[in-house]
Amino acid sequence: MIEKIGKITLYVKDQKEAKDFWLDKLGFELKFEQPMGPNLSWIEVGPSDDNTTLVLYSKSAMEQQDPSVVAHPSVIFSTTDLEAAYEKMKANGVKVEEMQKMPYGSMFIFFDQDGNNYLLREDA
């Protein structure tokens, strides 16, 4: 059966900008990169200690292939130190919303270079 999340595709306006955002501002590592044509690459990034990757795929290329699949992904990231992650993102110029402390856990929403939002929650 399914044992883990392997890859999550994010459809981005500019692959270089997206790659820079995830590597430089969030500290992810480049896991794989391969050209797919003159102006298109397959780019995978992810946290250093995780095998799950984000595929940064060209939104315009996918819209030409199959416009129906270019929907915003729902991605929830996890951390064991939410406060430190929040402060680091703010220091790196990442747009973040206020921290939410709920009975079931703490979390906050952050935005990438294209305005897509993601949730970061704290794992116990």
UniProtKB/TrEMBL annotation:
Residues 4-123 form the VOC domain. It comes from the Bacteria. Transmembrane segments: none annotated. Gene3D superfamilies: 2,3-Dihydroxybiphenyl 1,2-Dioxygenase, domain 1. This is VOC family protein. Signal peptide: none annotated. SUPFAM superfamilies: Glyoxalase/Bleomycin resistance protein/Dihydroxybiphenyl dioxygenase. The lineage of its organism: Bacteria, Bacillati, Bacillota, Bacilli, Bacillales. It comes from Evansella alkalicola.
